[in-house]
Each structure stands twice: as structure tokens, then as C-alpha cells.
Amino acid sequence: MTSAAGVVPVCAVRGSGEVDVTRRRRGDLTWLFVLNHGSDDIEIDVTGHDLVADQPVDGRVTVGAGGCAVVRERA
Q1: CA neighbor of 46 nearest in space, from 15, 26, 21, 16
Q2: Domain 2-73 sits in CATH 3.40.30.10
Q3: pTM, whole model, 2 decimals?
Q4: Domain boundaries, the chain
Q5: How far apart are CA 49 and CA 38, in angstroms?
């Protein structure tokens, strides 16, 4: 259904649960917003800097149950 409408996921999510993922752009900069509404941890493939945890992300970020991440992405 989504492929017929041209809708594709923002990124792959490892784990189960209710997750909102949004990517925002401004010029050459991008930010990935991840909200984990579920009761299990999830993993997202991304590289950049997690602004919530204030730490670098080198390939994958884990977002805990009920948690969030905002990653300033690197190309």
C-alpha cells in the first residue's frame, strides 16, 4: 500500500513498538527526530551527534522505552 503511494520509511527501525521518526532539513543540514512510545528499546541506523544525550553517534543509536533522540546527521 505505501509503495503504491510513493511513501517510504524515513529509516529502518530495529525492534518493535510505536515509534515516530521524522527527518527535517535546512540547506545541507539534516536532523533525525526519534520518539519511542513503546515499552521496548529500539535501534536506528544513523551517524551524527545526538543532541539530547550530547554524544556522537557512529552508525547506530539506541532509544530507550519512552525515550527520544534528536540526531544532527552527518553525510
Answers
A1: 21
A2: no
A3: 0.82
A4: 2-73
A5: 23
